[in-house]
């Protein structure tokens, strides 16, 4: 990754030195900003939008996860291209469109990761912390403490300490679906472990498929720990079983190794 980043920056400075930056910023038009930032952001996202398109067509993972080591250098490269385009062309609707699209493409895997975790504040914080840790580990540096969010681990203690469950999502669902007692006896909690998850897009596809199953009222999947939590309402018609959950996941990709364990739902309260 260091070599790739060095080559990219070296080539960029060489082009700027030779006063041929327009070859990088233009596509045969002196008025049209280059689309290279969008292409760079696509690599920075490990082609996440393309994987989402494949997911919509019910196709399996295309193997874009091999681009994951290039995320950080290409993110920085995208920033350099966007700044260069902004300086050269100023703020116009064209440059604004390219900048907006590039940013959305770059952060798309992180947005998917937050959605898979349940789209709550802890999910945003955990994704941010994971990204910062990856940056520090890749470049062997320590960022200032104020950049890190003061993320407090949830008070919910499950039997799998690497799993984080937020009380603003699953816990509220438990309360919402309860009757006289804060814990309804018909609700079951499953801890799920999925090995060989390749990217955030695949994780989001699995969650989307699980939410369609009868009885599933909540699903939180964590790509970085390859784990998840599923709440199932058992008193509905054809409520899904652990074996059916495993089959649905393996239908998406037979390489997935799935382990499902039932947990005590009281751990969420």
Describe the structure.
It is built from ten helices and four strands. With about 270 residues, it is an alpha+beta fold. It folds into two domains: about 1-55 and about 65-120, no CATH class; about 160-269, Alpha-Beta Plaits. The protein has a four-stranded antiparallel sheet with strand order 2-3-1-4, with helices on both faces. Strand 2 and strand 3 form a beta hairpin.
> How large, in whole angstroms, is the Cα Rg?
22 Å
Detail the poorly predicted runs: 1-5, 19-32, 151-168, 174-183
Helical/strand content category = alpha+beta
Give the beta-strand count.
Answer: 4
CATH fold group of the largest domain: Alpha-Beta Plaits
SSE topology string = HHHHHHHHEHEEHE
End-to-end Cα distance, whole Å, is 44 Å
> How much is the average pLDDT?
75
Q: Label the overall shape.
A: elongated
Helicity range of the residues?
40-55%
Biggest pleated-sheet summary: 4 strands, antiparallel
Domain tally: 2
CATH architecture of the largest domain: 2-Layer Sandwich
């Amino acid at each position: 990754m260091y070599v790739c980043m060095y080559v990219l920056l070296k080539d960029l400075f060489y082009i700027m030195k030779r006063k041929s930056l327009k070859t990088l910023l233009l596509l045969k038009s002196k008025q049209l900003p280059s689309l290279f930032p969008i292409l760079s952001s696509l690599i920075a996202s490990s082609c996440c939008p393309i994987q989402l398109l494949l997911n919509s067509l019910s196709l399996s993972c295309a193997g874009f996860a091999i681009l994951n080591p290039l995320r950080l250098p290409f993110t920085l490269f995208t920033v350099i291209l966007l700044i260069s385009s902004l300086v050269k062309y100023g703020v116009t609707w064209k440059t604004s469109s390219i900048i907006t699209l590039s940013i959305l493409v770059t952060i798309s895997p992180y947005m998917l990761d937050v959605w898979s975790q349940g789209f709550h504040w802890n999910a945003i914080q955990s994704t941010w912390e994971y990204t910062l840790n990856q940056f520090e580990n890749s470049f062997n540096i320590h960022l200032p403490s104020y950049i890190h969010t003061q993320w407090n681990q949830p008070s919910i203690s499950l039997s799998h300490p690497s799993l984080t469950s937020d009380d603003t999502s699953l816990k509220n669902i438990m309360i919402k679906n309860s009757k006289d007692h804060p814990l309804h006896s018909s609700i079951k909690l499953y801890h799920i472990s999925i090995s060989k998850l390749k990217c955030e897009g695949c994780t989001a596809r699995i969650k989307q498929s699980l939410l369609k199953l009868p009885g599933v009222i909540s699903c939180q999947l964590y790509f970085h720990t390859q784990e998840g939590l599923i709440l199932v309402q058992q008193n509905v018609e054809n409520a899904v079983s652990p074996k059916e959950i495993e089959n649905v996941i393996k239908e998406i990709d037979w390489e997935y190794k799935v382990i499902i364990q039932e947990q005590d739902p009281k751990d969420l309260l």
